[in-house]
Amino acid sequence: MNRYAEIDALLRSTHQAFLTSLHAVLEADRGSAAAVLAGARLRQAQVADAEGALRRRAWVPAPQLARELAFVAGIARLGAATDRLAAHTAGADAAPAPSPALSRELTALADAGDRRFRQLIAGASGGGPNRFDQGCARALFEIADHSSLAAAPVVELCAGVAIALLDVGRQAQAAA
User: Fold this and answer.
1) What percent of the chain clears pLDDT 90, i.e. is strictly above it?
2) In angstroms, rounded to a whole number, what is the distance separating the alpha carbons of residues 129 and 120?
3) Average pLDDT estimate for 66-81
4) CB-side exposure of 161: number of CA atoms within 13 Å?
5) Rounded distance, CA 130 to CA 115, Å?
6) pTM for the complete prediction?
7) Is the Cβ–Cβ distance between 145 and 108 less than 8 Å?
8) In this predicted structure, what is the pLDDT of residue 127?
9) What distance lies between CA 69 and its chain's CA centroid?
10) What gap in Å lies between CA 167 and CA 74, rounded to an integer?
């Protein structure tokens, strides 16, 4: 797709926030959740840097630029979903440890999300074709589907993160 350091940095920082946020929920760690929120401004600045880098290129067909900007906007939405999950954990009064079922969902989201981020980073860095394995997508779809059946706010937030990850993968393929 592209070889811009700005997009790579944005993906890497969003990946780290994603993993830290899920760890915070799993461990009921409000300090880690607060650290994710503290990095939100940096990620917002990275979005602006990535958009600027895309717009500064000498000449790019408008449809290609639009697809690449949509990819960056998708990463920004994923970061915002991750921040909402962290805010929920950071703001919870004595957040209880998640149930075993929720722990399994969170672990599955962390595993599938980590794989998807690694694939996105490899594509953005020019490290290989921007192809995504179907098992990862199925796991994310399943998490989003299970989460739609639960009423707990953290489960709904996880569904939002899973959906945002699926959208970013789709946008990355479109921009490739």
Assistant:
1) 49
2) 10
3) 95
4) 32
5) 13
6) 0.88
7) no
8) 45
9) 16
10) 7
- Average pLDDT of the chain is 85
List the end-to-end C-alpha distance of the chain, in Å, as a whole number: 4
Give the three-state DSSP class for 42: helix
Q: CA angle, corner 51, sides to 2 and 11, nearest 5? A: 60
| 129-173 confidence digits (pLDDT tens) | 445 567 778 888 888 876 655 557 888 888 889 999 989 988 888
Tally of helices (H runs) and strands (E runs) in the chain? 7, 0
> What is the enclosing helix (H) or strand (E) of 101?
helix 100-124
DSSP of 133-176: -HHHHHHHHHHHHHHHT---HHHHHHHHHHHHHHHHHHHHHHH-
3-state secondary structure of 84: helix
Q: What is the pLDDT of residue 93?
A: 62
Q: Is the pLDDT of residue 94 over 60?
A: no
Block residue for tokens 């717009």: 55
Tokens found for residue 137: 């997508």
Question: Cβ neighbours of residue 90 under 8 Å, at least 6 residues apart?
Answer: 24, 30, 33, 34, 36, 37
Per the model's pLDDT, the better-predicted residue between 42 and 154 turns out to be: 42
Contacts of 106 (CB under 8 A, 6+ apart): 22, 25, 26, 98, 158
